[in-house]
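4.2 Preliminary Data

To establish feasibility before requesting continued support, the project team ran the inverse folding procedure on a target of 368 residues. The structure was first converted into the token representation described in Section 3, and no sequence information of any kind was made available to the design step. The complete token record follows.
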């Protein structure tokens, strides 16, 4: 088991990030809008060691030192995009006692558009005090919530004095690569830092990247970054077995934390910016009993008036394809469908006896 990393405040120079909004996922390492004059991330300097004289202990210390330096540089590239959000009034979080607990936000635009976790911001507080890395303070309000990913979009009344640099996305993460979880809750002048690795991808039916870096209310809403300072995702209190408001915090002492991949966040910003909250898209179907990992996705019931019923699906149909992805088990269906949002139109191919049928569904936020 990996030892739990400590949170160590770092005093670093300031570099911020801002997102180009409304776009989809980018290729690995591609800049959404690279900073003016910015070159590729600097690599740690190679160390000259006499092969005959260098002991394993000295080599190990040298590697650890270079890793610390690389982590410090990575944090410096994004720290000015990390804001502290202090909810005021109303009932936020999982209990009234947590309503005034600060949380973290990731600044997306110079005008103060900020994405955060919904932890502490749902139900919505009366107001939010936003403190930026440069010390600027502003009021803010929640525009909308993504309930499927436990995210909130916040609009501050003004942005920081120091305009953030454009965002660089990390693209597709790799299991085992270094991951750094950042927040701004202990102090407003320094980010809190936890270093670990990416321990799994496409967790929670494709909604999250998993890390063993310490993820907790101390950094919910902050970025998970790589060693080049590129953003992997936004830290949020998701949990494998529950979608309840207290689901995520129970995992942060177990070496399991989650971040919503940045491309998923950016794809939904336009909708959230219009004040439209997002919920998981429902099909209105139930499957026959059996193991999710071996049972075919054969429909046991179709909810009357639900999206599947409106599309003509019937009990006994077997789902074979969702939006062009082949489906053989219930688990594969959930991986394809659970990250989808309400209002999303989906193509489904099913077999009914010897027939192969194609239908289109518009997913619902709730079933009547």
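Position-by-position output of the design step:
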């Amino acid at each position: 088991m990996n030892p739990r990393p400590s949170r160590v405040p770092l005093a670093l120079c300031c570099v911020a990030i801002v997102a180009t909004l409304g776009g989809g996922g980018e290729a690995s390492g591609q800049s959404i809008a690279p900073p003016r004059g910015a070159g590729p991330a600097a690599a740690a300097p190679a160390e000259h060691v006499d092969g005959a004289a260098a002991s394993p202990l000295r080599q190990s210390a040298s590697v650890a030192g270079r890793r610390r330096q690389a982590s410090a540089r990575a944090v410096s590239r994004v720290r000015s995009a990390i804001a502290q959000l202090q909810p005021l009034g109303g009932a936020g979080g999982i209990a009234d006692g947590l309503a005034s607990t600060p949380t973290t936000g990731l600044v997306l635009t110079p005008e103060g558009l900020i994405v955060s976790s919904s932890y502490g911001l749902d139900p919505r507080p009366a107001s939010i005090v936003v403190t930026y890395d440069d010390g600027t303070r502003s009021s803010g309000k929640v525009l909308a919530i993504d309930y499927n990913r436990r995210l909130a979009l916040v609009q501050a009344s003004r942005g920081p004095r120091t305009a953030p640099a454009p965002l660089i996305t990390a693209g597709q993460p790799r299991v085992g690569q270094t991951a750094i979880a950042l927040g701004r809750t202990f102090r407003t002048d320094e980010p809190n830092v936890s270093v670990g690795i990416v321990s799994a991808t496409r967790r929670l039916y494709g909604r999250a990247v998993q890390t063993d870096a310490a993820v907790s209310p101390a950094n919910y809403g902050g970025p998970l970054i790589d060693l080049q300072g590129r953003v992997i995702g936004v830290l949020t209190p998701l949990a494998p077995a529950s979608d309840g408001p207290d689901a995520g915090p129970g995992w942060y002492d177990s070496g399991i934390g989650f971040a919503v991949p940045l491309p998923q966040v950016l794809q939904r910003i336009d909708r959230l910016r219009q004040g439209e909250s997002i919920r998981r898209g429902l099909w209105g179907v139930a499957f026959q009993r059996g193991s999710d990992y071996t049972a075919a996705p054969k429909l046991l019931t179709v909810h009357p008036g639900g999206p599947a019923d409106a599309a003509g699906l019937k009990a006994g149909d077997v789902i074979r394809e969702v939006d062009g992805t082949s489906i053989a088990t219930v688990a594969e269906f959930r991986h394809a469908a659970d990250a989808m949002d309400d209002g999303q139109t989906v193509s489904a191919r099913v077999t009914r006896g010897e027939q192969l049928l194609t239908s289109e569904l518009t997913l619902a936020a709730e079933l009547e």
